[in-house]
Design goal:
Keywords: Coiled coil. By secondary structure, the protein is of the alpha+beta class. It has one helix and 13 strands. Strands 1-2-13-4-9-10-11 form a seven-stranded antiparallel sheet, with no helix packed on it.
Length: 230
């Protein structure tokens, strides 16, 4: 009799253990889902915060290299087949296909997006207003030279010293750039899936301007107006 009761108790205990194990698995799954939802919500809130600092950036034709073709609204740029005959301007890049944004930032937070599409050779970021614009500068883009930028040229690269190669699981069609002047950060994002790409940290003391460079003839870099963002 005692043996039968012991066997029954053992079976009942085993059943309870199985139920507890199943409940524990369900609880772990629920916790994982809640964690994912929390991270997603946090990312969405952070994204909305950046949108609160959105600015409409335009290209400064006075700084554009003569081989670059700018759209009439100064929001799109691509490299042309020939070099245009433009008047001399000491503010113009004279060797590499670069152009600055009209806007200058000495404080605050600012966010803008650039559609890169299927372009294969470009650089984006910010730079000091005082950067050198004469001679070959494309191979010396770095914070030490006053540039905080990322590049696509075969691989995605943050132009640190030495460069930092970025392993991206998703190829961005639109790159978001967020400058927080007081915090000393320049951050890059894949605006398609809202993922973070890279952040520079530096103490800024001079005026900063949006920086663009492209070697693509067919695919332009296009600054998205705030009204076009979703």
């Amino acid at each position: 009799m005692d043996f039968k009761r012991l066997t029954a108790d053992k079976k009942d205990l085993s059943a309870q253990v199985e139920r507890l194990s199943a409940d524990n698995i369900k609880l772990s799954t629920d916790n994982a889902k809640l964690s994912e939802e929390f991270e997603s919500l946090s990312a969405e809130l952070e994204w909305r915060r950046r949108y609160g600092y959105a600015v409409n950036v335009t290209l400064d034709p006075e700084t554009a290299h003569p081989c670059l073709i700018l759209s009439q609204d100064w929001r799109s740029v691509r490299r042309g087949d020939t070099t245009q005959n433009l008047p001399y301007n000491p503010e113009r890049f004279d060797t590499d296909p670069c152009v600055l944004g009209c806007e200058g930032f000495t404080s605050g937070s600012h966010y803008w997006e650039v559609e890169v599409g299927d372009g294969a050779d470009w650089r984006l970021g910010v730079c000091k207003d005082s950067v050198r614009k004469t001679g070959k500068i494309i191979r010396s883009l770095s914070p030490e030279e006053g540039y905080w930028a990322m590049r696509l040229m075969g691989d995605y690269t943050a132009l640190t010293s030495p460069p930092t190669w970025l392993r991206l699981s998703v190829t961005p069609q639109i790159v978001g750039i967020f400058l927080d002047y007081e915090a000393g950060t320049v951050s890059f994002y894949n605006a398609d899936d809202k993922s973070h790409l890279f952040t520079f940290i530096h103490t800024f003391t001079e005026k900063l301007r949006p920086f663009f460079c492209t070697y693509d003839i067919e695919v332009p870099l296009r600054i998205l107006p705030v009204a076009a963002w979703k």
